[in-house]
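Incident review: delayed structure delivery

Summary: a single-chain prediction request sat in the queue longer than the usual turnaround. Root cause was a stuck worker, restarted by the on-call engineer. No data loss occurred. The affected request and its eventual output are reproduced below so the record is complete for anyone auditing the incident later.

Affected input:
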Amino acid sequence: MEREDFAAESQKIQKAAELNGYDKSFVDKIIGKHIRKKQRQDTTTLQPEKEQIHRISLPFYPKVTNHIRKILKRHGFHVVHKSGNTLQELLNNQKDKVPPEERSGIYEIPCKDCPAVYIGQTRRKFKTRLKEHKKAVENERTNDSSVAMHSICLQHEIDWGNAKLLKNVRKSSHLNAWESMYISTADRLLMNEDEALISSPLFQLTKLNL
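Output delivered after worker restart:
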């Protein structure tokens, strides 16, 4: 790759990384690592020989697996044991059971009387933030919520039953990027009074399948 093309590609990587909440110094280290690796490859003609290994994944049963492993080893197969009840899988199963209203991230609140929706972010549980919007509407606190502003000013009813979490985001540093992406790619009228915090042509170019 030519020097100018490399610089342009690096800028694209840096921009994409910034939008996803990664620190610039972290990305620089990764790029530098690959540059040094390429330089080492260019200074030597020796290529490491890769040993072809045939691996087979089998559940571990002490009385059976050890015997099978010895037989397969004689024929050039390497057995990898895998348990169906690992601690990681058990923890993942528990995580999957957490309902969306108990999670943080990017959410959407629609209107019953028009196609408009509100797209927002929350570091807390979605249900907690939803209650705050409801109270703002009930108490006509238009300064506290764009949803309340829409409902009170237009006399529209909010469709609380179809409010939903669009994207579970656990890292607070990623919230602005995800919210901006959803706002920028929304194909419906928005209640949001403020524009997206991050403006990038990448949102429109990619049209990610959110």
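Verification: Helices lie at 3-19, 24-42, 62-74, 87-96, 126-138, 146-154, 175-184, 201-206.
Action items: add queue-age alerting; document worker restart procedure.
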